[in-house]
Write the structure tokens for this entry.
Amino acid sequence: MGKPTGFLEYNRVSAQMEEPKERIKHFREFKKYLPIEEQQKQGARCMECGVPFCQSGDVLGGMVSGCPLHNLVPETNDLVYTGNWEQAYLRLSKTHSFPEFTARVCPALCEAACTCNLNGEPVGTKENEHAIIETAFERGWVKPQVPKVRTGKKVAVIGSGPSGLAAAQQLNRRGHQVTVFERSDRIGGLLRYGIPNMKLDKAVIDRRVRLMEEEGVVFKTGADVGKDIKAAELQKEFDRIVLCCGASNPRDIKVPGRDAHHIYFAVDFLASVTRSLLDSGLKDHKFVSAKGKHVLVIGGGDTGNDCVGTALRLGAKSVTQLEMMPKAPDTRADSNPWPQWPRVCKTDYGQEEAIAVFGHDPRIYQTTVTEFIKDEKGDVQKAKTVKLESKRDEKTGRMNMVPVKGSEEVIEAQLVLIAAGFLGSQKYVTDAFKVSVDERTNVATKPEGYETGIPGIFAAGDMHRGQSLVVWAIREGRKAAEEVDASLMGYSNL
């Protein structure tokens, strides 16, 4: 349980971050983690509660509270405190495929549900997990787990994001022969091209992929299933197929002037920068440039924040971020008690950097674009915006955000990045496999399961669940693998 009085004796201490004005000069990870001795003190703060919501992953108040993977949080925190790092790694590995990913990009659902939040700050479980997995790699405990016996069964995984990698890892370790098909030029999906390098260094992905290759997983890049590769061919060759193609349809903004040049979906912008960074250190200039431009980011989520941070690193003249919804409160409302997920305002790294550079928060709340203004060349130059307010629809009874008359403004915008979320799976993939989709265009599966209406074809991750977190994608991949395994073998020990 850690130290019985640890939460009273030790304050929460987190990794130090490089100063904003310094870290925007590069695309490297910018956190300086605690020395291992200090990290052990953070493990001591865990109380091993009678009801550890940190590992529950239950829906409370409409949102998940605690870890969806059901990581054994109090146990691993105790092992950190006592310095049993190898045992901590083994314990964490029972439930988690890739702690090195979530330790960098997860919003820490476990910490939000920590009992210490009732009177102080939560246990630093996310950084404890970072210390566990990085110590394990440094000391050589993370080794290829090559199955001793092969089952003779072949499984194709379509997509190499977190859900695809998790499914592939589990199924391969069970003894099935797994081939992962990725349409892009590199493995990683969302991890590779949807998350900037300063949040998740791509060497971390490469390290894990090499391990999986040593374990026997086959990776094929530049393999666009549904276009270059026919679904029917895979169905003949493989015993089972797992679709893990993500929620790949970016939500667009349909307003006058949308056809102007230099308006991009956020994912295309971020991918272009990361690809150029990996290929040439940005020297090839094959990326969407923000240098010297007034940048407008539409969308207030994590992807929007990543666009802010990336634009700053590319030398943007200014950055403005629009959010349709009202600003969340700075502290919990009485209607949002612990252990529910805290619906409070979060200022992330990109916004912190914009504040440091420009002297103010880049976010403008309850605002949307009504028109893009372009010049004679067709290049976007400005955007017309309008304020929004919440009003009840008399017919449906629902609250909607509607324009406020007389609140129109015009702002500079020479580069526009649309980060308004994703709508679901891509039609050419679902059509290729003849699987059904629901009203949100997510792949439909059997109730509480992962198999589609087509026998032998399963779906997991954002393609199945809808746009969500990396930790949820990993859980989806692991659970789908369990179901696939049971369908092949009659039972599963995954």
Remarks:
- The chain has three domains: 6-138, 154-248+423-489, 263-418.
- The mean pLDDT is 96.
- The chain has 18 helices and 18 strands.
